[in-house]
Amino acid sequence: MRQQEKSEPLTSRITVPVIIGAALSLALVVAFGVYAVLRVDGLAIERQRNFARSGIAEQVDGLAREQRSVTLWNDSVLKAKAGDQQWMRENLGEWLHSYYGQDRVYVLDERNRPVHAMRDGMTVDPASFGGEAGAIMPLVARLRTQMRGRPAEPGVTDLVRLGSVPAIVSVQPIMPDTELVRQEAGTEYVHVASQIVDAELVGRVAAHYLIEGARLTSIDPQTTASVPLVNSGNATLGFLTWKPDRPGLAVVTQTAPALLAGVVFAGALLSFILRRLRRASRELQSSEEDARYLAFHDTLTELPNRALFEDRLGQALATVKRGRGRMALLCVDLDRFKHVNDTLGHDAGDQLVKQVAQRLGEGVREIDTVARVGGDEFAIVLVDIRDQRTAEKVSERILADLGEPFDVKGDQIFISASIGIALSPEDGIDVRELFRKADIALYAAKRSGRSCFRIFADGMDDMLKHKHRIERDLRQALEGDRPVELAYQPVFAIDGLTLLGAEATLDWDHFAHGGLPVSQLIAIAEERGVIGLLTGRMLAAACAFARDSEVPWLSIALSPVFLRQEGAAQLVQSVLAEAGVTPDRLQVEIGEGLLLDGNPAALAAVRALREAGVRIALDDFGTGPSSLTLLRLHRVDKLKIDRSFVRLLGGTDPGEAIVRAIAQLATALGIRVAAEGVETPEQRTTLAALGCQEIQGSLLSPPMPAAQFARMVRHRPALQTVRSAG
């Protein structure tokens, strides 16, 4: 009896949602069906509207085309100016009615006076033009104005109201079709042809486009199955309306019996399923406790999962809110756990996680909570602690316990962990806020070299917010349409006069923080995964500048992270191709660290760029541990002496000897030598004596905006003269 009482609520909890779900599903199907019918019918009506517009447009174009068959004719020019009424009746008037069905024709002389008129197939007194001149003469005036520009096919066509009915009117000059007849500009006669928009014309449009029940009305029918007749002056002359085609409604009408049968069948099926669910719910009741346990515990370690942990954390914080003690949240992350999975397999990784969970549980009190909240992430709630030192002691004990070797499949494994600590009430009494600050402290611990713990401090939050703000603004700037701004520092020959090229660097002026160091921006872009997008925009800006200026070449430093990405070399080449810049006008600067790292993808990208014609410069040469070996293994086009060596020139430090050795080595290998950071005339003189070929620095020119550098490039001869004179 007790079992039955327990199972009935579960049955209700299953049955009611199923019924509600079925009802909602039926409602959604009906709603979608109605929407689909309305959508299909709407599209059909819009298609008919387009057909109607096209039909009227074809009638307008057809009238002008028919008219042109008689207005472009030597005989028409001669006979009209001769006043041959018989010829005009047979060729310019009644013939157009009998052959094409045109309703009215007028011939006007060079002063726009009527000399011939035809209405409904009968030649009439030209003076009858006066009754319709008010509607037609504006078109004649437009034609006369158009003729002054001598267009290839002059003519004006529009919808006008002739009396009380709308009509299509086409006005064209009567002109010779060969050079045998010459006609002075401004003496052309004008031929006016009109077609009344009546039931016959509407019928032709409807028959061609299969529009049922088409008719013309002067009153807006207030229906979507209509189009207005609007002339070039935006005046509405009438409306073409019809019986709308509704294929969606027709399909619903035809399929209604089948749909009704489907609803009945679905109802029967739902009843059958509900009966089966009642039986299944009784069986599920016996395993409800197990399901509840699995819902709140990690299956591998049997520790509480994130859901249960957050509940217990909330309970601990509620106690703190009532002023009863303090607590600490510890976020524990295993260092380099991925290496264990990659080298020993996931089974070994699972065993290691289970042993870590056991040690963590043994390292805290029974009233504390240890939970697994991620693959190699754990969290601990320490309740009712005395002070901060208590959390520190627990963290020290955890680090020591995890520092002991683990026995996994007969092998000893050594790992370490990083711990971030947030205290309550000092750091907050909200679950998410405390988690966030513990994560920030964990991030600080990992940045400090791992295998340590850090306690949250306000400075950590400010630093991370600052970094995230810059990252967000940088991403928005890159995803927008505004181009990346670059600064250009000229590179001169050793004489300090000849401009050889320039180094392009990112010049992003943040609206809140002002100019930010390039190294900081590049590091953020690398860390947040937007270095490819940033590099592409920088390359595009540099190549666009090179294309639009006469600077011999531009140099740009490429991040090792970018060069390790798939398709890095292809991106550089595609940007060059799109800008129309030859590869020899681009110089790519790489650091010794990239070569020392030996990443195959990055080295392949460098080789591909050099083979394509891009020059490779080794930046900051001499600061790495294996410079000579690098030059033997990797081909480069230029060595850039680091500014730290240039700064030592002229002092007691052996910097001069180092620069001389670099220059001699480069000369022996056929590699050009450049020096950066040249600030004094003495440094330039010394570098010239030591064999350096290129220099850049504040002595010659600081980095400058693109517009300023472009002016410098344009006035380069004048610049050299000024310097020579100085």
From TrEMBL:
Ranges for domain EAL: 467-717
Record's keyword annotation contains Membrane: yes
GO molecular function ontology, one term from the record: catalytic activity
Keyword Heme: no
Transmembrane regions: 12-38, 256-274
SMART domains linked: EAL (SM00052), GGDEF (SM00267)
Entries under InterPro entries matching the protein: Biofilm_reg_signaling, CHASE4, EAL_dom, EAL_sf, GGDEF_dom, Nucleotide_cyclase, Rev_trsase/Diguanyl_cyclase
CDD domains: EAL (cd01948), GGDEF (cd01949)
Pfam families: CHASE4, EAL, GGDEF
Keywords carried by this UniProt record: Membrane, Transmembrane, Transmembrane helix
Annotated GGDEF domain residues: 325-458
PANTHER family linked: BIOFILM ARCHITECTURE MAINTENANCE PROTEIN MBAA, DIGUANYLATE CYCLASE DGCP
Name of the protein this chain belongs to: Bifunctional diguanylate cyclase/phosphodiesterase
Organism for this UniProt entry: Kumtagia ephedrae
